[in-house]
């Protein structure tokens, strides 16, 4: 299986997280055109040695970090992701801003036996980390900059921190992303 594409990344602030269930969300926003998404999983490991050998070992999910790049992100969308104030085209970051938890989803294109497969990824509880901002002067060649974002992936109250589903049609993967982030009530 080969991977060669990623698209349609959306974020929706959490409205409510009922005990033992998946969160429900506010309106979702598309972050921009997805350039890259890279997940790093953080695992806690414990080992017990007895009689001079490993007797028990436990590896448990703690959190994840999803490093994302998009081509551009509109200021209103940035306000939604980072909890910043947006009004009349102006985005204001304040030291007291509270970055919201939210759901995050996108899909990627895989190739299996010469045919495209679309794998949707849904993270029920994530929180953005303020990222760097770079700019460079124009020179004798054009270098495009992308918008980096980093999200911490959390375990929601029901414990299911990631969902993945494969589809044979791209429109089905898009519908899955929309369905997961359009959860207005818990079912």
List keywords for this structure.
nine-stranded antiparallel β-sheet; Phage tail protein; mainly beta; Pnp Oxidase, Chain A; two-stranded antiparallel ribbon; 2 helices; 187 residues
Care to describe what's here?
- This is Phage tail protein.
- It is a single chain.
- This protein has 187 residues and is mainly β.
- It has one domain (2-47, 54-87, 97-136, 143-181): Roll (Pnp Oxidase, Chain A).
- It contains two helices and eleven strands.
- The protein has helices at 75-82, 170-181, and strands at 2-16, 24-25, 29-32, 34-50, 53-70, 85-87, 90-92, 101-112, 115-129, 147-153, 163-167.
- The strands form two sheets. Strands 1, 2, 3, 4, 5, 8, 9, 10 and 11 form a nine-stranded antiparallel beta sheet that branches.
- A hairpin with a 2-residue loop joins strand 8 (101-112) and strand 9 (115-129).
- It is globular.
- The chain starts with a strand and ends in a 6-residue tail after the last helix.
- The model has no long low-confidence stretch (mean pLDDT 91).
| Count of beta strands | 11
Overall number of domains: 1
DSSP strand content = over 45%
The CATH architecture would be: Roll
Order of helices and strands: EEEEEHEEEEEEH
Contiguous runs where pLDDT drops below 50 for at least 5 residues: none
For the CA atoms, what is the radius of gyration?
Answer: 19 Å
CATH topology: Pnp Oxidase, Chain A
- Judged by helices, strands and strand pairing, the structural class is mainly beta
Please summarize the sheet with the most strands.
9 strands, antiparallel
The backbone outline, from C-alpha atoms, is globular
Distance linking N and C termini = 34 Å
